[in-house]
Sequence to fold (333 residues):
Amino acid sequence: MNYIGSKYKLSNFIKKTVYSVVGNDLSDKIFCDIFAGTGIVGRSFKQEVKQVISNDFEYYSYILNKNYIENHNKLENQTELIDELNQLPLIENGFIYKNYCMGSGSNRQYFSDENGKKIDTIRQKIEKLKNINKINSNQYYFLLASLLESADKVANTASVYGAFLKHLKKTAKKELILQPANFVINSNEHLVFNKDSNQLIKEISGDILYLDPPYNARQYGSNYHILNTIAKYDEFIPKGKTGLPTYQKSKYCSKNFVLNEFEELIKNAKFKYIFLSYNNEGLMSVDDVKKIMSKYGNYNIETTNYQRFKSDKDENRNHKAKKTEEYLHILEK
Fold:
């Protein structure tokens, strides 16, 4: 997924730094990714540590990580289930089609009419299969993650869901084909949570804590609300032009709250090594972070440059993506 704040391009930099600080053998270590997003960083450590603890407050992220992190054994009937879901006759009255497709009269166009109907059809079938015990929880999260990623590929947006495009773009005209969200198989069990990070930190402990909180005022609950709606598939009255649900805002996106929230997290962390990804466009300055982290142990910092997140709209304007400086703040408590 083209995801705000994704660490896909930075994963090698992060891993190299973690190894240089913690050591080359992480096989007895518990690694926590507490603002997991799509789970890229947790996935990269999954085979190398004793356990990954993954968490995110957004429900779509929870689904992705229940599959990519918690699933670690081969599932039965993966191919057969995907094939079955791809071949279902489409339903006409599902929640996504009624509220987020133009043909229903919603005046919203997040998906083509056919793809909206297919999302509803597959989502309802997955729930039914779970309710009649035809699939277990591991298969359920695998199928839901597969649907989220497959739907995202045909969404009619400029990469995020804060708004939809007036006309269907080329990729949004393609038929949604459910593709499997294949995960890494290993012998260790992992944990995935859907909690406020500042609450969860009081309940867990481990060796390596990786932090990748929101950097700025952009709320993930609004930028990815359609994915939450597909994942939860609950009934609500969509608000406004973009069809937003009611969502909880993160204090890490507020200049007034972020410093206190961050210090509480560091203070309560029962982890020896803490790594914070942040950049030069964030609400907290380098000095802010250094001042807080230095209170609780030995502080250091590594930096690298990379291309910032760019949406489809940016690409269409032929603007060069800006370079941004990424910081990896390091604390040994």
Remarks:
- The chain is about 35% helix and 15% strand.
